[in-house]
Specification:
three-stranded antiparallel sheet, binds protoporphyrin IX containing FE, Htaa, Htaa domain-containing protein
Length: about 180
């Protein structure tokens, strides 16, 4: 595994002070599966943190683009002694006409971070007091392959919240590893 080299997230703590973060649990049943599978492990680093409730927070990288919300963080799920490995790296939420999507670094080209893959379709967000909420998060066909086809395209993932962390502070919890 290549050493982690921050790119746009170099100033993660400085940028974080701007306050905008993305909160996401990916898929609660998947987290449960990983944490109860043999050698299962979830690692959050490089701008991503695990929260006390088992979900994750990704640091806002640049909030200057209203239709392209970029976050940084490196979230890895592994189990079955390395046979299962899923990575969610540097998620970006992008508006395309009336629909939004969530893309991540295409780890098929790792360690290059030059290619991206649309991981989920987000539909339309709801505007809340603290930010944006995407209640309908649906897996794309290409991301379905990352899960070994166990989740077909269109599978519902956890909702995504984009919030102002200054108004609603996050509380990083302990590493999510099984006992
Ligand atoms: C030794 C290899 C593996 C074994 C023994 C195994 C075993 C299982 C079992 C028993 C379940 C059902 C769990 C339940 O219903 O609670 C399951 C579900 C699942 N497996 Fe695996 N698996 C293996 C490899 C993989 C790989 C390589 C992937 C993906 C890259 C994968 C992804 C999944 C997913 C996404 C689910 C559904 C989890 C959920 O949401 O409930 N598995 N696996």
């Amino acid at each position: 595994m290549a050493q982690y080299r921050p790119n746009g997230c170099l100033n993660r703590w400085m940028v974080r002070s701007m306050g905008v973060v993305m909160k996401w649990g990916v898929k609660s049943s998947f987290r449960h599966y990983i944490l109860t599978s043999g050698s299962g492990k979830i690692t959050a680093m490089g701008g991503a943190d695990a929260l006390e409730d088992g979900t994750f927070v990704f640091t806002g990288e640049d909030t200057s683009r209203p239709h392209d919300l970029r976050f940084c963080g490196d979230l890895r799920f592994s189990a079955h002694h390395g046979m299962l490995f899923v990575m969610v790296h540097d998620p970006w939420i992008t508006r395309r006409d009336n629909d939004w999507d969530l893309s991540v670094t295409d780890v098929g080209h790792w360690p290059a971070r030059t290619h991206r893959m649309v991981f989920a379709r987000l539909g339309t967000p709801a505007v809340t007091e603290s930010g944006l909420e995407f209640p309908e998060v649906r897996l794309t066909p290409e991301a379905s392959l990352d899960f070994g086809g166990n989740y077909p395209a269109g599978t519902a993932l956890d909702p995504i919240h984009v919030v102002d962390d200054m108004a609603e502070p996050s509380h990083p919890g302990p590493p999510r590893t099984p006992a």
